[in-house]
């Protein structure tokens, strides 16, 4: 005999089943690539803690690396460098315990900048597999238990800072951008390209040359709009739209800086792309911090810089808010004496316009102003073919432009965080600055902002995490990890995962 269940118990059971089902659905694929769903930085339906204090669930040591964590099902995936080996790591997201570790095949390591890592590209995960890309090796594919499914060696792209772009998925294809500094003008062979591979076996589906492109560090995204979908790739000086199924080039917009680092985002019927080379955020910037940074090399204190003061410790400042010696501070002198002498001569004479053997403040400011890095944000309408720079840019902005953190679109606003801890909110329809506020976290910002539960989470390089309410500015909470944070956090239904220099942290909403 089947015992009857009262109505209220049945209702509670049904609601619980619906809740569990919805949570599993929200978590299983909510943050499976760089910056989460389609690289947007937005976690719909997720409710991590607004205040991190008292909500640390676990904290585990992780090897060095700059790949952001991704979440799929009950696993967290990231890559790292252990000794001389490149590794992929999987952790149980409930406990932080290591589930499995796989080392990439040994290969010649690419040359990377001190501020970069050999493990910077973020993995991509789907319901069947995890895909990881190392610039030093190529692509590797594992199932969720860590068993290798296929591997595809890819020659390291010529790149002055090292690889940073991450793979993304589109249906049954994996898409990867391979831009290369070895691209030569007017050459018949383009070393830069974008490729689409079969997820199941790594076979090439299509390949599109990018003949005008040199090295870049941006991750592509898929722009869905009324009547179409484009694969969007930001490269040096321009952004491209490609047919998402065939890879055929459709349109491009020019006018950006040489260094493409940020990833585009979409919303309100537009695509938003930002660039600011060398850390200069505004068209009209204050040159005084740059001059003060250069005066530390003025050994005799005469408020000028002589050729003889450009010793092996001399560094031309790009980001004066950083301490000298930091890998992002500026352009250092080469260690090789011959190359150092060559750079000293070229750099000195480029600033010393009157050829009197000294840099004055006026000469330095004039030089710095002309090389400000073209900070710009463009709002681009869909459609068009060929170069649509003059026809499809709705508005553009040259203030508060970040260099490394990607923009965040949320509820008709764009949020931009730049070095010095300045957060700006932009009206996405008009391009007007709604506010600019200092978060209180000084120094650089490399991690991109993310949003969940109507709150923005922003992490500084020094490890200060700020939580800001979306909409009108309200700083809700700050938590100092006291450890560098250089990569974008990951989110699921109840948790924010933050990778710092030496640890992975899980802050989880209780109950």
Primary descriptors:
single chain, 511 residues, mainly beta, Methylamine Dehydrogenase, Chain H, Recoverin, domain 1
Would you write up a description of this structure?
The chain contains four helices and 37 strands. It has two domains: 384 residues, 7 Propeller (Methylamine Dehydrogenase, Chain H); 83 residues, Orthogonal Bundle (Recoverin, domain 1). 11% of the residues lie in helices and 36% in strands. β2 and β3 form a beta hairpin. The strands form ten sheets. Strands 14-15-16-17-25 form a five-stranded mixed beta sheet, with no helix packed on it. A four-stranded antiparallel beta sheet has the order 1-37-36-35, with no helix packed on it. The chain has a four-stranded antiparallel beta sheet with strand order 2-3-4-5, with no helix packed on it.
Q: Summarize this, please?
A:
This protein is mainly beta and 511 residues long. It is 11% helix and 36% strand.
The unreliable regions are 1-29
Structural class: mainly beta
Estimate nothing, just give the exact number of structural domains: 2
CATH topology of the largest domain: Methylamine Dehydrogenase, Chain H
How many beta-strand elements?
A: 37
User: CATH superfamily membership of the largest domain, which one?
Assistant: YVTN repeat-like/Quinoprotein amine dehydrogenase
Distance between the termini: 37 Å
Shape: globular
Taking the sheet with the most strands, its summary is: 5 strands, mixed
Specify the oligomeric state.
single chain
Number of helices: 4
Mean pLDDT across residues: 89
In the CATH scheme, the class of the largest domain would be: Mainly Beta
